[in-house]
Predict the 3D structure of the following.
Amino acid sequence: MHSEEDFTALAADLERRFDAGVGTAWTDHDFNALALAAFALQFEGLAPYRGLCEARGRTPATVSRWQDIPAVPATAFKHIDFRVAGVGAPEAVFRTSGTTGGREIRGRHLVPRLSLYRHALLPPFRAHLVGGRDCLPFLSLIPAPADRPDSSLSFMVGAAADALATETQWLVDARGSLDEGGLRSAMRRSAEAGEPVLVLGTSLALLHMVERLEAEAGAPLPAGSRIMETGGFKGAEREISRAELHARLEAATGVPSRMIVSEYGMTELLSQLYEPMLSEGASAVGTYVAPPWLRVRALDPVTLEELPDGAPGLLAFFDLANAGFVCHVLTEDVGTVSAGRVRLSGRATGAEPRGCSLAMDELMSVAR
Amino acid sequence: MTEPRDVPAPEGVADVACALRASRAQLARRSAADVIAALGAAGARFLDPADPLRAEALERLPEASGLSAAMCVAVLDRMAADWTEERLTDLVTAELGGLAALDGFVRAGSRSAMAVGPSLSVQIVAGGVPGVGVTALLRSLVVKGPTLLKPGRGDVVLPLLFARALAGIDPALADALAVVYWPGGSREHEDAALAHADVVTVYGSDETVSEIRARTPVTARLVPYHHRVSVGVVGREALAPSRVERTAAQIAEAVALFDQRGCVSPQVIYVEQGGACAPPEFTERLASALADLEARLPGGPLEVAQASRLHQARGTAELLAATGGGTVRHGHAAPWTVVLEPVAVPLGPTAGRFVRVRPLADATELPGLLAPFGPHLQTVGVAGLVDRLEKIARALGEIGASRVAPFASVAFPPAWWHHDGRGPLLDLVRWVDLEEATASRSAPGPSR
């Protein structure tokens, strides 16, 4: 029987290892041993997950490779609280904002130990966004954590700001409205001081910013400034291509596209992937790097067998930062994994609904 | 399914619509029997094993529809059986009382009435059940209504082949038919067609139907076939040892036909408790029957999005089953799945052949259970209700179901069915009454 001490010990070990940074690869042996330890805790403490594993004949007694640990579907987070018995009460509840079949279903994500998240998010953030400096001012178009306590993205930016920002301007309120005056004065101050900044925003928020700056130019940001873009245009009514957005960002802020870094993350994963633009330049466009404690595989869409290097499939993530709930997550994202780099090619959704049959959940939601 | 090519410009659609309207005059002069004979001759070609048209249909259907080759044979045989002269005559007779009303006034009592087909019926069909498009175009042509058919993405081949067959048999009649594909929801194409229609038939999601409804000209009649759900109920009598295997096999086939894409395809099976075979055991039998069907009627290959959706739904069901007392059985790479749910659980969209089994204390509870979604209810498959059947069917009809049928015939309704509770030909025709001069009250009475 595992105890809270077992989880605490595992989490503390992971945090120490995360702190070593993203520069050194982990051995397969170490990754596997930690994965199996996390699996044992999750199997024991999560009844639904145990049921799924037993149904598939994959239990801590039979599994010796992390690849064989069953993955949970990402959409299950909409319906199930993955609350592991014996890891303590959740310290935070994050919510996803997704839609399914045209209806909004918000998933919940219980995080038992925020420090594990903090330790996981900082090294990749530092490497891919702060790169080459100790710290710099943040201009955040992502709401402050105090305004959006249920947003894992706001938490991430807040934690990164605490550790890596000389100062932070929160330029968007809880509802997503841009403080245009604040933006302009922050840009002006930065230009006058010649001090580069990090601008953080979702694709949609960056587009809004660009449109305002196109209407009335702002002071160009000093050389060395960079932009983190995340989230695409999920659920938004408008959409422009990445190339167009980046060209317009460059024109409006002076930040060249080689300094615009895409982040790939999801509420269900406590680790994030980034385009290594700062270290590799334009050749990195469209490729994402995971930290060494997150392994990504492309799986055959039908059999879920692991695909060879470079073949497109459904992406599955094994994230040791998720030790407090479920590490292995099968997403609906399609992409390739080649030499450790992940390339996204879209989401496996949006197919026509089947025939003239109503989504069963609508039926089931009333017939109970 | 593959995306069809050859999408015309919207102006091309308008030109086609005008040409179809112009074809009506010659169509109106012909007798219904003559028209039906030509349509039936074209339809019958799909049933003739020696006909190259049938061979071409069966060669092209699997890729175009995403159904397996064996499934395409099964579907074409059953669909085309209703496209013969005899069946089409039966259809007209069932709805209009005979062919005569299509050819002139028919006297009934003191009045005379004539059925006039539309000058142009535009039919917008969604989805991927092969044969639905041909059935739709036949409904219009048998009432002498020229038709512009936009087939569903997975149902393009059969209407095109039918149009070609008809052109070979009766070129003048073929002038009254156009099969034009455009991607579903293309507003420019839809509007170009709608502007010229006097009847608009639309099959699709609630969103599609309400979109088209809003843009249909006020002078045109709308025939809506919106989202429908079908379910099944198994009474205790069908769970007896002598019958349960057959019951499970029939349900499996009803689920599997068209890979469950049809509005008639059952999505949930309610199994009565207290029978010789309890719901968990019935779930296992249904799983075996679906597995067996993979040999005879294999599931079609899933697109990446469908396969992804299936894994998400199966995994979620497995997670929920562990705490809810449920069971999940599936065919791994074969796309069938059975979920026993003592408590209804949300799974999100599914894919493949995905059927849910719900225990039910007594079959008479079903109408009450289904009442909240009556507006979307279509077919209820039944087995083992025996002397309770009529009472339960009546209650189901009152809450919204339009069809109660044995599982063996669930997938293929007869040609004369009240599709979604309507008369599909009556929806297309306009009645013309001919009133005669009535005798004035002050007129002298009979002389003797």
